[in-house]
Design a protein that fits this description.
alpha+beta, about 1050 residues, 5-stranded antiparallel β-sheet, elongated, single chain
């Protein structure tokens, strides 16, 4: 039997670390471990499981809290069952445990896994959508199509579609999906088989040293000696008289200080017993009593041979038949004809009692007792606040604090019906005082209907009753009662009648019982409410006994956590990839990962959490380097990236770099890891997880973004990873269902809004910064060479650097419509002269056709043509999936717009006079002309009419067309982004990186459109290029720009438009 995993056993009565026990194990090994931590049959309630560990190659991803909440026998049986699994089956189990909304929600359920290995289909080498798409396309044998078609399929998109359809899950241990088999329930819910029960407590070897080991919470066999009452009566009547006499004697003897305290202590334990039985148990030394059969049947313990029972009273009513007057419905006697009451025989129950025997726990032996849930007040702030709130709820009058003159701890105001407590006292003294005054309020309030107060006890009796109730309640909740003294009770009881003493004791018992019951109920409600609040919370902080505080909050991966020291400075942190855990369980798991063994003293929520966050924010601001703080608010700064932690050996924790550098480094590391792990024989890690933070200034405000990229997943650069991540979760139904189920509709709407902001504002913002940095880097590199560039180029590159420095503050303040970048032509006189020549030619041509230069440019430098129309259809991409075939009103309801960036022009043709949109729809939906290569004109397509020099866009709706002017408007943010991307290409010394004349000619021959401006620039560049030596011949006249463009168009008109191979695919 080899060890599978280990659990740590600990004694809650000792502060030292516990001992690790390997599982599966034996009874002998368990007992040896228990002896080492001081656990025996004398104190079994001290045992608890405090840790869980397994070697990496044997590790099971069982939730930490699930292990701690189990017991030794269950875990031993589980380890024995899991031993039978193969390596592949273990990986499948781990994948099932890590899957979102895992069905393995209990130890019993996991124990049944070996019987259900076919319940899942597990692909251990598939960790992302691209791998899943590749598996189904090329390895599963489920997709039958020509190989040349497969090359055109985006495997990542295909994999995401498959995972969504079959509701599969990607985990660290591979891809998992249900097979469709039914789960077989075998051991779940059943007792652990006898051969796997190994928990047996060793016999006690030494007496407990009360000075070193606190007494256990439950009652043990080490109590005062039991001295049962010996009754000599011959029958029940005589025995009843004997015990009644003993009760009267016991009451008379009770009012000795020590005996009275012992009685109150017993009463606290048996507050729901009658006064007579409480006193009888106290007189005979009982601590925890039960009947002979209850010990045997419920607790599996037997009464030791020769033990005598403790005598108490039990109800023994009996029934007799009596003749009674017959009554009518109004309760009046029914009379006979002579006027005499009629009688009838009825069975009547007569209350009576009998003497029975019960036995104290010290008189029994057998199985250890279960831990008794005594509601001890630990002294921590959280317990104090809950307890005091419960006291306020149980009090019949309001409780307040004030500065009381004369040294009193508190008082009950008879006329105002309120309780006042001295402010500034310790928590313990405050609670004791509150209990004492509540007892006064319950027992001694003035009855307004009895102005004489004839039944009100005297002041000494009132104090004895209130103090006795306070002592009993404090005893019940484990509060320190050492300062209580009842020396005065002997004087108080002297001379009083037995009936009066007995009545007072019954009042004390009844009041203590009522207050304890009310407090138990209110405490349970408060704890349930706190647990519910904590489970529903998105963030919380756990204050520990050692002064540290753990802050934890939900995130897309599961949970993000940070450990703070007593001074609120951050010490450590990380992310927990377990979205299926509740927040309390996640908090405990985070504490375990951080090695924090201190107990949780208080859970901070609401205002307390806000106060802690404010303190932590201030403390960590003070500890940050001044330069870092200055950078965070520098409007001219490029965003910076900080590596929070990384599994890559190429990065250091805490390392910082500009966004543009991090974007490139992340892309390189991702590609390298992806390539490396695909090699045959690779045995390293599958991913290099890297957590990062981007610090930036957006809309004038400093902000930050935290995330994690897994190098090797093939997502590319840092910015591309962020975009892919949020696009995926925007459309993932599993994530949507998880948020709706666990957090509610409002949280889902907030999640959508945040992701939309990231995709439509934050991503373009980051890309613009990267483009500006690329411009700056290229210009700076050119300036460093110096001697290889002309004076005009030097001036141009300096202007580019200045342009970037001017644009960054604008971008950081929310101005995305950046100005035009510098152009080389502005710094070269010959280029300016040539530009003037081009502009003059364009002006002449525009005048010749009766147009302004602006109108001529808008018409593509063409003379006015006849009206035309164009058909646009959505790009065949995953990003347009939610737009396809959607009616216009549904797009608007979903907050989507008809954006030209999502479309491709698939057809253009002249518009015959009188042709309507419906004519176009009928032609391209029904007739489908031969030269039309798009799909049938359908809902979500756009038709643009070019009429009289004006363009109008029309959305093909479910009924008719809907005009969509937004289709023709540019997105300012997108325009700015494209602008900076273009600007990046303007800094190599050639105007706008213009193509050469030969390249333009090749484009024209291929049937592509060419630009008049590009053609002009190409001609100029051709002239400036060094010429090869030629023979002297007549120099041909330089052709006009117009002539060159016309020649290119004639060449283009000879070409037949190439056919596009369809990429649509049915699987």
């Amino acid at each position: 039997m080899s060890e599978l995993f280990s659990i740590q056993l600990q004694n809650r009565q000792q502060s030292r670390d516990g001992i690790w026990l390997d599982l599966p194990t034996t009874t002998e090994q368990v007992q040896a471990a228990l002896r080492q931590i001081g656990i025996s049959s004398d104190n079994p309630q001290g045992l608890f499981i405090s840790g869980y560990f397994a070697e990496e190659e044997k590790r099971f991803a069982i939730p930490y809290n699930m292990v701690l909440a189990s017991n030794v026998d269950e875990l031993n049986f589980l380890a024995s069952r899991l031993e039978t699994l193969s390596t592949g089956e273990r990986a499948e189990l781990n994948a099932a445990l890590q899957a979102p909304q895992s069905e393995l929600f209990s130890i019993g359920r996991i124990t049944d896994f070996p019987e259900n290995v076919d319940y899942y289909v597990h692909l251990p080498d598939v960790h992302g959508p691209a791998r899943l798409g590749d598996y189904y396309l090329n390895r599963s044998g489920m997709v039958n199509m020509p190989d040349e078609w497969k090359g055109g399929i985006d495997t990542a998109q295909f994999g995401r579609y498959v995972a969504q359809q079959e509701q599969g899950a990607f985990t660290q241990y591979g891809y998992l999906v249900k097979s469709g088999d039914e789960w077989q329930k075998v051991y779940e819910g059943q007792p652990v088989p006898e051969e796997y029960r190994v928990l047996s407590f060793p016999a006690s070897e030494i007496l407990r040293d009360a000075a070193n080991i606190p007494p256990p919470v439950q009652y043990t066999t080490e109590q005062q000696k039991v001295i049962p009452i010996i009754l000599n009566g011959k029958d029940s009547t005589e025995r009843m008289k004997e015990i009644t006499d003993r009760l009267e004697t016991g009451i008379q003897e009770l009012f000795d200080s020590d005996r009275y305290k012992a009685y109150l202590t017993t009463m606290a334990k048996f507050h729901n017993y009658s006064f007579n039985n409480t006193l009888l148990i106290a007189m005979q030394g009982g601590q925890l009593v039960a009947g002979f059969n209850k010990w045997k049947d419920t607790f599996h313990r037997t009464v030791k041979k020769g033990e005598k029972g403790i005598k108490i009273l039990a109800p023994a009513p009996y029934k007799v038949k009596q003749k009674m007057e017959k009554l009518d419905e109004q309760g009046k006697p029914i009379l006979d004809k002579d006027g005499k009451p009629l009688t009838e025989e009825k069975t009547v129950q007569i209350p009576a009692f009998k003497v029975v025997s019960v036995f104290d726990v010290s008189q029994t032996e057998g199985e250890p007792l279960p831990t008794i849930a005594v509601n001890e007040l630990s002294g921590s702030v959280q317990d104090y606040q809950d307890f005091f709130k419960a006291l306020e709820q149980a009090s019949p009058v309001p409780i307040g604090f004030e500065d009381i003159e004369g040294g009193a701890h508190g008082y009950f105001h008879l006329l105002d019906n309120r309780i006042a407590i001295q402010e500034g006292m310790s928590q313990l003294q405050t609670i004791k005082t509150a209990i004492h005054e509540i007892a006064h309020a319950k027992l001694h309030a003035i009855d307004p209907n009895d102005p004489e107060q004839t039944n009100r006890p005297d002041s000494r009796t009132r104090e004895v009753q209130a103090e006795s109730v306070a002592y009993a309640v404090c005893q019940y909740y484990g509060l320190d009662t050492s300062e209580y003294s009842f020396g005065y009770v002997a004087g108080w009881s002297s001379g009083r009648e037995l009936a009066e003493l007995k009545a007072s004791l019954e009042i004390i018992r009844s009041a203590a019982h009522e207050l304890i019951s009310a407090l138990d109920e209110h405490l349970a409600e408060l704890r349930q409410q706190r647990e519910a609040d904590l489970s529903a919370a998105q963030e919380a902080a756990f204050a520990l006994d050692n002064g540290n505080t753990l802050f934890i909050q939900t995130c897309d991966f599961g949970y993000d956590y940070t450990l703070y020291g007593p001074d609120h400075t951050a010490l450590d942190g990380g992310q927990l990839d377990a979205p299926g855990l509740t927040l309390p369980d996640a908090g405990q798991e985070a504490l375990n990962l951080l090695g924090q063994t201190a107990a949780v003293a208080e859970v901070l929520l609401g205002d307390k959490l806000a106060a802690f966050q404010e303190a932590a924010e201030k403390a960590n601001e003070l500890s940050a380097p001044e330069a870092e703080k200055a950078a965070a608010t520098d409007l001219s700064a490029e965003p910076t990236v900080t590596i929070l932690w990384s599994e890559s050996d190429k990065l250091q924790d805490g390392e910082t770099m500009p966004l543009s550098v991090a974007n490139r480094v992340f892309e390189e590391l991702d590609a390298a890891q992806h390539t490396e792990r695909e090699k045959d024989g690779y045995t390293g890690g599958w991913y290099d997880k890297t957590a990062f933070r981007i610090d930036f200034t957006m809309n004038g405000q400093p902000d930050n973004y935290e995330g994690r990229q897994d190098f090797g997943d093939g997502e590319g650069s840092l910015v591309q990873h962020i975009q892919n991540y949020h696009e995926y979760y925007t459309k993932d139904e599993n994530w949507k269902n998880f948020v709706l189920h666990n957090k509610g509709p409002e949280a889902w709407e907030q999640d959508k809004a945040e992701r939309e902001m990231v995709l439509t504002e934050f991503i373009p913002y980051l890309k613009q910064h990267c483009n500006l940095s690329a411009m700056e880097q290229t210009a700076t590199a050119a300036l460093r060479e110096g001697q290889n560039i002309s004076p005009e180029q030097t001036a141009y590159y300096n202007a580019v650097v200045a342009y970037v420095q001017d644009c960054r503050p604008m971008l950081n303040q929310g101005r995305y419509d950046l100005p035009e970048p510098p152009k080389l032509v502005d710094f070269d006189q010959s280029l300016q002269d040539y530009e003037a020549q081009v502009q003059a030619e364009i002006a002449q041509e525009a005048a010749a056709v009766g147009m302004t230069v602006e109108e001529y440019a808008a018409a593509g430098f063409e003379a006015p043509q006849q009206d035309s129309f164009s058909i646009y259809q959505l790009r065949n991409e995953d990003s347009t999936r939610d737009y396809r075939f959607e009616p216009y009103d549904r797009l608007q309801a979903a907050g989507r717009t008809v954006d030209k960036a999502n479309y491709t022009e698939v057809y253009a043709a002249p518009l015959a006079a009188g042709t309507t949109l419906e004519d176009i729809y009928r032609t391209f939906n029904v007739d489908h002309p031969a030269d039309f290569k798009g799909h049938s004109l359908s809902v979500s397509d756009v038709v643009v009419l070019h009429q009289n020099g004006q363009d109008t866009a029309h959305y093909c709706d479910s009924v008719g067309f809907q005009q969509v002017p937004e289709f023709l408007r540019e997105n300012p943010l997108r325009t700015a982004e494209l602008s900076t991307e273009q600007n990046e290409n303007m800094i190599d010394g050639v105007l706008n990186n213009a193509p050469s004349l030969g390249e333009l000619e090749a484009k024209a021959k291929a049937g592509e459109q060419i630009s008049l401006t590009d053609l002009a620039a190409a001609v100029k560049a051709e002239e400036k290029a060094p010429k090869a030596k030629k023979s002297r011949t007549a120099k041909p006249k330089k052709p006009s720009i117009r002539a060159q463009l016309d020649a290119a168009k004639k060449e283009q008109s000879k070409q037949t438009p190439p056919r596009e191979k369809t990429k649509e695919l049915e699987v």
